[in-house]
Amino acid sequence: MDVRQYVVEKAKLAQKAARQLAAASTDVKNAALLAMAEALQQRSDEILRANAQDMEAGRQKGLSQALLDRLLLTEKRIADMAEGLRQVAALPDPVGEVVKMWTRPNGLQIGQMRVPLGVVGIIYEARPNVTVDAAALCLKTGNAVLLRGGSEAIHSNTAIARIISRAAREVGLPEGAIQLIEITGREAVNVMLRLNGYLDVLIPRGGAGLIRTVVENASVPVIETGVGNCHVYVDAEADLAMAEEIVINAKTQRPAVCNAMETLLVHREVAAEFLPGLAERLTELGVELRGCPVTRSLVPGIQPATEDDWATEFLDLILAIRVVDSLDEALEHIYLYGTKHSEAIVTSNYFTARRFLQEVDAAAVYVNASTRFTDGFQFGFGAEIGISTQKLHARGPMGLTELTTIKYIVYGEGQIRE
Amino acid sequence: MDVRQYVVEKAKLAQKAARQLAAASTDVKNAALLAMAEALQQRSDEILRANAQDMEAGRQKGLSQALLDRLLLTEKRIADMAEGLRQVAALPDPVGEVVKMWTRPNGLQIGQMRVPLGVVGIIYEARPNVTVDAAALCLKTGNAVLLRGGSEAIHSNTAIARIISRAAREVGLPEGAIQLIEITGREAVNVMLRLNGYLDVLIPRGGAGLIRTVVENASVPVIETGVGNCHVYVDAEADLAMAEEIVINAKTQRPAVCNAMETLLVHREVAAEFLPGLAERLTELGVELRGCPVTRSLVPGIQPATEDDWATEFLDLILAIRVVDSLDEALEHIYLYGTKHSEAIVTSNYFTARRFLQEVDAAAVYVNASTRFTDGFQFGFGAEIGISTQKLHARGPMGLTELTTIKYIVYGEGQIRE
Q1: How many Å lie between the alpha carbon of B408 and the closest alpha carbon of chain A?
Q2: Which is deepest, A209, B78, B137, B359, by most CB within 10 Å?
Q3: In this structure, is residue A170 part of a structural domain?
Q4: Are residues B67 and B17 in the same domain?
Q5: Contacting residues of A for B393, CB less than 8 Å apart
Q6: Would you call A407 and B219 a contact, using CB atoms and an 8 Å cutoff?
Q7: Model confidence, pTM
Q8: Residue A379: which pLDDT band, with cuts at 50, 70 and 90?
């Protein structure tokens, strides 16, 4: 098969669908989302059979238990995907919103109207639920979507994509609105990366390697998601009981995600009071601690933290701890090692809180709360397509609004330019 | 010289400056802009001497008269650049604006605050005034800027950049806030294109070739500017006197710019009444007409329009004309050949106007006005860094706001995630 031609044909179909989708009413789009939910549950047998093929192949390939867990689908997980579709249907549709409108001295009335991006490409890894989530968010915002999932999930993804795509067509949405690249291999990705003129944006979702590959090789505009080397800084004037709960939450509530804390910074004045008790609780929770020399003098027996540790997103029950002399030293550490994702301070001092909020450059900056809230649902967006770690277009959790662009609509009565 | 090392050193300096600039007050930034204006005028002799070198080299290289005109600086043009700086100083500063803020059920208060992008790279061609304009807009928005102008203007750009950079430093802005690549040759551009981690965005300003090169080869996020194959559609229910003024304005007021009209679409019902008189006026104004068969039957003696003509941005006194049978045919033509820049309809029919506004996918869609208004000043933004023809981050004229991103600021009282 000519892979390039295969991908381009899909992209052309998506582009054609995008033009119709842009004009689709919210009612029709919601009906499609509900029909997709219904179809997923009615045809769960098909999905589970396809998933069993992927699981078997995964076991034979020797995938890790963690990867197999991500790959696995159950009736419950399919019901969750369907529920996700119903939640997206219930969200407000941003398309058509006139964000603002003003009148120029010459009488021209100019407005910014939200419109779909067009065709969104999503390149993702093992979890088959991304197929449903991404399709739902794109469809709700009037975008066509070209999906390329991981080869481990190819059977599951193909079954899911065919079912939801057919359900969407049956309520009147165009063929091509939701499409999956149904072949495996790197070549299809390479073609997608350079499909300018067909794809309006690419969103990679997955590990650091995937994201790096996409960013470095795409000529299509990319929204970078993912990497989070996040910090909590416990200030000299922190409420230490509050700090302990925030630190434990930020590290252990779900350590494998990008908004989990990786390094704890503690002001020297409170280190002796704060660290030993905290270390005991963290150790009980299975967290491996790595400390700077001062930390190690206060918490005997833990490993030294290396330069690499400060720069590492562990995504695991590992925590690096550093005692700092001042807010400035904490800010400097975050500037040097942070990835501009989520950063938190625990302090009771108004001026310290204000400086931290102003001076830390990150997608989300917290005062007295856990970094774990950087998430579309937690922010109140209802759903998210990912968390942007770049500064263009979208930063932080991306909800439906971030899947739209604007166009200027201009009403005149014959105005010409002098 | 090691070009890569040279560019990276500049980028590092810019990054350091960006951190300080992000915290600079509007007062300080405005003082710098005014000092830059003052310095340009006080040291105009230096600039004119450097420009004379560029002009001489340009003549020897056989640059066209048009290019030499763009390159030329005069006392008047320097005064205009200084005036531009004063205008940017007078604009409101978007940095620090909290776009919105809301409170979650758990009490977390979440706000979106406008912050600078960081380091902006601008790659541009002949006009030395871009050096001043781009530096001013970036500085006002708290961004450091790394400029790379065309080799033809290297002496002019170097003189200008040194003067404004020194003026900015003298009022307390960091070294590195405004920097120019002072060497010529493609290699520096190639390095800039892949400076992820140093540059937050690249904005190419210039011809189609430059923009294509940047889009295809950059791994740094790019904002694409420029190409405009714009249409005016004169509907069956148009006010034909209004249509004639709009068409003449859109084609002839400044034909070399991206928002000028390149193809005129006319509904068959009014073509016989509209086209002959219009053609006469356009011909008198020096416009070369190229028509479809129906147009040629109504306006004898003009060249046939080819498939290529429909797809061409002439940037010149050339107009392609096509008679269409319906709004749908006009929409289809625009969809096929347009570049999603600026599109206009002339009509007195409410429903036709509404369909055109909804269905045309372009940065700016006009009803009863000239396409020539797609411009930062005309839209009321006060100044522009370019006109984005992509959908991510910015679309249409980019003012100060488009040179910022947001960060989420989150106020808590110890909230942790369940």
Answers
A1: 4
A2: B137
A3: yes
A4: yes
A5: 392-393
A6: no
A7: 0.93
A8: very high
